[in-house]
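DEPOSITED CHAIN:
***
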Amino acid sequence: MAMENSSSQALPAEMEQVAQQHWQRLLEACPDMQEQLTSLQTTELQRIMGLSEFVAEQLCRHPNWVVSLLEGQLTELDRESFSIELDSLLSGVSDEEQAKAILRRYRNRQMVRLAWRDFGNYAELQGSLLDLSALAEALIIAGRDWLYTQMCQQSGTPCDSEGNPQPLMILGMGKLGGRELNFSSDIDLIFTFPEHGETQGGRRAQDNQQFFIRMGQRLINLLHQVTVDGFVYRVDMRLRPYGESGPLVVSFSGLEDYYQEQGRDWERYAMVKARALGPWSAYSDELHDMLRPFVYRRYIDFSAIESLRKMKQLITQEVRRRQLTDNIKLGAGGIREVEFVVQSFQLIRGGREPALRQQSLFAAIDTLYSLGQLEYLAVDELKHSYLLLRRVENLLQAIGDQQTQTLPETNLDWQRLCLPMDMADEAELRSEIDAAMAKIHRYFKDTVGGQDSDEVNDLWTQQLWNVQEDSDAHGLMNEQGLEDEALWPALKDWRATVAKRTIGPRGRDTLDKLMPLLLQEFSHLQQPSKAFAPVSKVLDQILTRTTYLELLFENPGARQQLVSLCLASPWIGEQLAKFPMLLDELIDPAHLYDTTSLDDYPSELRQYLLRVPEEDMEQQMEALRQFKLSQQLKIAAADVTGVLPVMQVSDHLTFLAEAIIEQVVAQAWHQITARHGVPSHLQNGEMGFAVIGYGKAGGIELGYGSDLDLVFLHDYSREKYPDSLQTNGDRPLDIGHFYLKLAQRVLHLFSTRTTSGELYEVDMRLRPSGASGLLVSEIENFGTYQKEEAWTWEHQALVRARVLFGENRLAARFSELRGEVLALPRDKAELAKQVREMRQKMRAHLLKVDEGCFDLKQSAGGIADIEFIAQYLVLANTHEYPELAIWSDNVRIFEVLSELELITDIRAQYLTQAYCYLRDESHHLTLQQANTTLPLEQVAEHAQRVLDIYEFILGRSE
């Protein structure tokens, strides 16, 4: 019976050769295999070993699986049996390593069975996806239930206030939630529990959340860790509230509060497929009832289309930036676009139409037809196209158990796809895939995708781009009233240079269509040649990257912004030339100038990183840099066009840096703890690690291109935690050494140069003992050093220090220590002398300016003088007025000094006005790529006022 579905078609020669190699390996592992099989069974076995490297590898390791598979397990499959068999295998097991081995071997055996059924056409695609999803759910729930039993025996049972046991509930997201899991998919999960309370029956009561966080960590390890038997599933927890920076497990009420108050559009989209895993219970109903109002609005919600359009735009950017080709999931017309079409209807109408509130795409698309939202032809074409792409995806992944959606690069793998799909060759299958993706993309554009791009009209600039004679060019420009004599020579020279570049026919054709449109943008300007110079430098960088030329051709908004921003700021032009991926940001001007609100940088970054596989550290580092560059561009664009008040520029650049620091530390922590475990004294997901910002970062005054002055602290000492000496991982480290490795990894993530450059330049010289000191200090030792050994200039630096990252406990202790150091009693005359001398040294070393010019930072009456006034007054007076230690930024320090009447209101006003003016000018000069100097007469009034106050407070320099 097993043979009926197996094609009798002979294997292609290359695949036959691979099959024979695996067959010989199998015979070496099990010499009597041939005697156990009929000739038909042998043929089918060799066939599957040629089709799938994964199946061949597993069968060579476990030859005892072969006979039972061929004698009924391929034709018959009962999904209900997965849970029953796993419960039986795990009963009586108390060792976690043994449990890992059982889960992995069961997973591999069943995945071999499912892959074989798929390649051998024993099951329809929808059945295969259901089988894969049921297997994943059974493995997750078996692991959960086994762990829960073990942990309740060890620590007691988590209960609510009335003594009712509380379970760990698991939301399956994405295709797992929709019961449409593909072969080698990650699993996206969210852990939650119903009620807070404590464990009962253990040696000591433990908070429910602590219990479930520990259980969640162990469950991830049970499924995710790679052992000799492989892994069960790659687990991705980044869809939980607050992502990686949030607790691993929250209660139902915590989940509800988050989605009501902070839930984003992309989280609504993700929640459409959310499904409580495991046997259904009253808690499952409660969880879904609680989430429903967030996902499905009571009214018809057309805002969902714009949100989905933006999300698709982000995916298109990602495809372009990672230079993905032949991607049947993310590319135009790919699997994701079908999901967007269906889920746009669900989000828009699901509040009014309960029948649409379902996780399965197949069920939802049928419902859309029955509700009259999609025509029969649309449903038929979308379904058939989607099924084709999902079949290709499933087979692709089953070849080597690899998570891929990219079409093969080798002839062998194309053969492996074509054979089970009954296609003659790559050309036929490609043709089918292209046709399917074209249909999907058409429906996507109709439903979600917005308008088609403009075509090149018969423009006069088309003649200008193609004209050869100078006289003809001048005649054309005169007809249009263009009087810029420098434009034609610049255009002619650049065109000649481009002609020598190696550009493919598609790129050359796109450039010829793009240039008339760009020249049309220049023609509206007073001095077109001034804009052409920086724009041509951007074009130089993308001539061989046709996708970016196409982006500019297809998006009028992007062309307009490219020209206007390059004209407004050479710095922006240089950024666009260095990092062409930033051109994506120009497509939607409304989005470009809608700067992220200060509080939203962490969540925006978290969403951005979700597009990159969590385990791909190289892509994660690149994504961090791309996020920084794109957000920095938005800030600069809003700055040069006056959309963003100049006082807020530094706020945005600083808050952006803080969000990035949080993610860098989280990634470094993830990498180090994966290898060495966590310091054993930590609880509740703590790190015991803080990042202190000094200088511009501490003073909330970062500029474009500023580096970060950082100091790293931890709170571990052997005296404080005598029972905790090492981390708890497979390769334990002394805890002090662990924090050193963590600090080194953080610096590595900042400084590594990827395609998008360095993340930030980090300066660690302000740490205790400077460059010769420890890279990371214990916080109490830091306090002792500051009180007993630090120089006055180090205390000046501490005035501008604050916590950029760290738990509340650590942040509060740093603030206490900082306040104590700033409040040390000091002789005011001696302090003034030391501050004055330090300022003189700095000016002698750093001030290099021509006569009649003013250096915004270092000249007398400049930014540094203002900073030294603030630092002196804080150090001189905090022992009497502790409130002076609250703020680290100069503007608020002057406000407090004025309120305390330590300086007059008018002096505080003069200092603040001068400080803001000089900083604003510094920002603008940076964007113009000019030296931060101005003519002396332009700043004379501000500078003289500052100098008068400086000399009044600190005395004259000798």
